[in-house]
Amino acid sequence: MGRTKRPRDSKKDGSMKKESKKGVWTAEEDRRLAQVVEIHGSKKWESVASKAGLNRCGKSCRLRWMNYLRPNIKRGNISDQEEDLILRLHRLLGNRWSLIAGRLPGRTDNEIKNYWNCHLSKKINQKQMPITIPKADLERTKALENDHEDGSEEGTSRGVGESDVSFHLGELLDFSSEVPLDMEWVTKFLETDEGLCQFS
DNA sequence: AACAACCTCAACCGCATCAGA
DNA sequence: GTCTGATGCGGTTGAGGTTGT
What we know:
One of its GO terms (cellular component) is nucleus. By secondary structure, this protein is mainly alpha-helical. 52% of the residues lie in helices and 0% in strands. Helix 2 crosses helix 3 (58-69). The N and C termini lie far apart (46 Å).
């Protein structure tokens, strides 16, 4: 896309000690990184960086690989189905972008996070603003929330802040009205420890 | 045409967690 | 059990693009 980014001041960060290059990746850097990852695998990013002869920190290489160079990355246009899934997953999981991304093949956590921040969060705010929830509904929601309070994702030490969008669990998990979209994972998720501890 | 305001998204930062010594 | 370096993740920034005035 040809954006050029000026590197920001480097601060202390273990992985950024020796002055490594920052800013936009060049095609040549991409090529070298992809080559090394192909040969040595996507682990040990510090050594990948040095093997590729890139004056980049491992972290930066990892990010570039994960968000851009990795095979099967889907770029652009998030479909309605994907958007709907993101919304549901966000209500379920909060700001755990990597988990959400894990359920959207080809999408990266960064992409989803960006999409959320500039599209969906607004949408939700808009939707929420004028809505006056019927009292009965509100009380039902509250009751449900209390039921599941402990599971309300305190496990995540951060994030989740925005997930204060109230919702009915039943509604959230009611996938009956939509095109089948490989949703078995929801069931599986709820069967896992993580899923259980959120809703028990 | 010029400028401002807004939008998008790649990349950085800092913290938490993991894994090996 | 503790320390340390590496990795993973979410939050944030800011350059460049787009749209509105």
